[in-house]
Amino acid sequence: MELSFEFFPPRTDKMEATLWQSIETLAPLCPRFVSVTYGAGGTTRERTHATVERILKETDLTPAAHLTCVGSSRDEVDAIARDYWQLGVRHLVALRGDPPQPGASFEPHPDGYRDAAELVAGLKKVAPFDISVACYPECHPEAASSQADIEHLKRKIDAGADRAITQFFFSAECFFDFRDRVAAAGLDVEIVPGILPVTNVAQARKFAGQCGASIPGWLDHMFEGLDERPAARQLVAATIAAELCGQLYSGGVRHFHFYTLNRAELAFAICHLLGVRAKAAA
After folding, report:
1. Each residue of 27-72: pLDDT tens digit?
2. Integer Cα distance of 189 and 158 in angstroms
3. Quick one: which H or E segment has residue 238?
């Protein structure tokens, strides 16, 4: 079984300490890579770059830096990619990205990449990066149809993407149906399920609204009465996510990508329930 973990760059010193504690907790699980998210705006980019650089220099982990099309020209994105390559980064997660203002429509930079497929093609010209892209089991909210969504995924794969990581979902059948539709479209590509362990349903619902994921009613029910019981919420969250991963494993899945939200213990517990054991320090 192979694992990967997603982190976001810290905004404060306290958050940085939490992030590094999380990285140190999950590193002994020997993930294939760890990705670091990236938003529009200079300071966020700089934090992402600094976090990736520190992971590269201070750990044995393989960092995968996120890159988006938002707010940058092609030359600017290419320059960032070249900097990463010279630094020693070989993995990227290429995304169109969300508009800086929530609810606004995406507008490409006049001189920028218009979408993730163009971005992948451009990055492959910069250097032979290993590139992951996003995919949407329940359809991207801006896609005209589920078929159009898969056709866009095909464009990203044809442009050179090496694998696709799904947005989060809560039904194994949802993933298997998507995997079947991708195969039926003639796409031979690794589809990695993205797992979001949920302890805060309101927060998950906010994320879901941005990416087209559905929140089943039973999830609300599972957390009823636990507002003042954080430890119980953690136990319930771990159980739900581990059960989903177990169903996916039974269906042949061998690589799981965890959206950690920089909280390591929950992801660690789920991986432990799946049979993954930490490698002892030398």
Report:
1. 999 999 999 997 555 557 788 899 999 999 999 999 999 999 888 8
2. 10
3. helix 230-250
What does the pLDDT look like over 65-90, one tens digit per residue?
A: 999 988 889 999 999 999 999 999 99
Question: Would you please indicate which residues are annotated as catalytic (active-site) residues?
Answer: 6
Examine residue 224 and state whether it is found in any structural domain, yes or no: yes
pLDDT confidence bin for 254, thresholds 50/70/90: very high
What residue numbers bound the domain in which 228 lies?
2-273
Tell me 167's DSSP state: P
**Tell me, what CATH number does 119's domain have?**
3.20.20.220
Assigned token pair, 218? 């039973």
Q: Is the pTM of this model over 0.70?
A: yes
Sequence-ordered list of residues with C-beta below 8 angstroms from that of 18, at least 6 positions apart, any chain: 10, 262
Which residues 6+ apart lie within 8 Å of 145 measured at CB? 139
Q: How many domains does the chain have?
A: 1
pLDDT digits (tens, 9 = 90+) for 137-182: 998 888 889 899 999 999 999 999 999 999 999 999 999 999 999 9
- Does 215 fall in a domain? yes
Whether 93 maps to a domain, the answer reads yes
- Residue 279, in any domain of the structure: no
